[in-house]
Amino acid sequence: MTRAADPQSYDYAPYQGRPKIVWPGNARVAFWVAPNIEYYELAPPPSPTRSVWYRPEPDVINYSMRDYGNRVGFHRMADVMAKYGVRGSVSLNVAVCDHYPEIIERCCELDWELFSHGIYNTRYLYNMTEEQQREIIRDSRETILRASGQSLDGWLSPAISNGLTTQDLLAEEGIKYTLDLFHDDQPMPVKTRNPGRLVSLPYMMECNDVPVLNFRNISPRNYLQIIRDHFDQLYEEGEESGTVMCIPLHPYLIGQPHRLALLDAALEYVTSHSGVWLATGREIAAHYEANHYDQFAGWINSINAETAK
Amino acid sequence: MSEIGSDYFHYPHRRKGLDHDRFDRRYLRDIPARNWPDGERLKLWITVHFEHFPMDMPAKPFVPPGGMDRPYPSVWDFSTRDYGNRVGIFRLFKVLDRYGIRATAAMNSEVAERYPLLLQEILRRNWEIAAAGVDMGQLHHSQVEQAREAELVAQSFGTLRRLSGQAVTGWHSPAHSQSAITPDLVAENGGKYIADWINDDLPFAFRTRAGELTQMPLSWDLSDHKILHSQSMPVTDYEWQINAAFDALLSEAQEGGGRILSLSLSPWVIGQPSRIRTLDRLLGRFMAASGVASATGEELRQDWTSRGE
């Protein structure tokens, strides 16, 4: 396989002069929360590309840190979200359906969406053939259907381990939206090798608890400030054209007792505003696909034509 | 490009429960809501780490938190850590004495051997001695020969029992790091609890080849070491987070039953003049609250196992 220097999943499209996005109820911001409900294996098979654990296995501190989310953090997080009427769109390692079925039952009771984040967070797409990646997508689709009755509409690659053609495969397998691209604050059409209508949704790493709390060592109270500032700006811009705000979460981090209050305060802040559409990933992608996909695709074509002159 | 074999699609542990047999799946919210036997709702478990970081400690296979930051011979790193055993701990003694708190002393056995005067001060206060390996340069992980690790565990327990006269039932692995057999060795040496996994806020039963241990919820995310040293946060953010954890756990205990707030303290970190007053303020607030009492790890283990859960 030749090495690509650009994923080639999108054309350049400036954040000005865009078609106007109109959300249901003329909301300014489509707000969604994406809890990552994950399973990391204690003894995963080795990957040729990325070592899974940081210490010799069993890496007790790192494995158990993540296991906290399923044992303790999930229900705490779900309680706070339910308090504010915020449904989750779950980035799910689908093996959780097998290991922790009670968690999936609660997600269904709360009317949350389940989408795929691979089988385990310790099994990467790296080095896989297209057929092998399709097998992961098929397994995800069947497991989510069996556990919840839901269709598989969304995708975030496990541990964000993309292959060069992963986005093409998602479109061909009937996935509606992808979170693997971080190029935009609005939904966008994804370019794929075959005609299809794959939407990229903003999955905002700036508000994701893992990079904020774990990689960048930002304190909980400063994380709360980031979320408020992020929202304030998107809310202001949403007066002109609909914006999207996503808070990606991990119950092993946000469900800790010293962080729960920040989630409560963040959701209280967002939901106290009028003009906020409390949506799921599937709902945002479907609305965009039905109402704005063609507008955006046409506008991007006109930009391309302009550029080519 | 390396290929992925069919074993990468083999999921031998994909079933209800964990992917190993050390303990069962359990959700914190499903634990019967019962207060501690003395009627209290929240137990404050203070663990003070007594550590010896040899200047020639190995950097492989991983550097433990608090390991030498600079090239050998790093007198700066060595003496900064040893400061805790000379100066910082005496500030800690004063603060904990003020509130009548007896702590668990998680000791490298090397500290007890090197500093008999320090051991006397601990025993005079009737603190609990728990074994924390031999020193911070001799970590427990699966690249250590099993016979060698067995010697280390026996040496730690044996030395601490001989010098303290206590039963020494607790074990904390340096850097929360275990090999695949560390819990078995602890049980074979008469230990009754381990405190290395960070996946729960309450104790749980942990299987070994020599019978059952209790895994105690010693915190890492809330440790002074992680927040103030590893994450380099200001002490005001330490205070914010410890207060938030206390509030969340005490609130949860109103309906959820007894909880534990585990504070993990390193005298060389929290015992600095600029930080010790923060700890004083925190403990003053906690110990004045209704429904709160302090306990050692072994006391909590006995309370927990007496519930028969």
Task: Describe the protein's architecture and organization.
- The complex is a heterodimer of chains A (309) and B (309).
- Chain A is α/β, with parallel strands linked by helices and 309 residues long.
- In chain A, 42% of the residues lie in helices and 11% in strands.
- The relative contact order of chain A is 0.20.
- In chain B, 40% of the residues lie in helices and 14% in strands.
- The relative contact order of chain B is 0.19.
- In chain B, strands 1, 2, 3, 8 and 9 form a five-stranded parallel beta sheet that branches. A four-stranded mixed beta sheet of chain B has the order 4-5-7-6.
- Chain B contains ten helices and nine strands.
- The chains are: A alpha/beta (309), B alpha/beta (309).
- At the A-B interface, α1, α7 and α9 of A face α7 of B.
Secondary structure layout plus pairing:
The complex is a heterodimer of chains A (309) and B (309).
Chain A: E1 29-37, H1 60-83, E2 89-92, H2 96-99, H3 101-109, E3 113-116, H4 130-148, E4 154-155, H5 166-172, E5 177-178, E6 188-189, E7 199-200, H6 209-215, H7 220-237, E8 243-249, H8 251-254, H9 260-271, E9 276-278, H10 281-291, H11 293-308
Parallel strand pairs in A: 1-2, 1-8, 1-9, 2-3, 4-5, 5-7
Antiparallel strand pairs in A: 6-7
Helix pairs in contact in A: 1-9, 7-9
Chain B: E1 42-50, H1 75-98, E2 104-107, H2 109-114, H3 116-124, E3 128-131, H4 146-164, E4 170-171, H5 182-188, E5 193-194, E6 204-208, E7 211-215, H6 224-230, H7 235-256, E8 259-265, H8 267-270, H9 273-288, E9 292-295, H10 297-306
Parallel strand pairs in B: 1-2, 1-8, 1-9, 2-3, 4-5, 5-7
Antiparallel strand pairs in B: 6-7
Helix pairs in contact in B: 1-9, 7-9
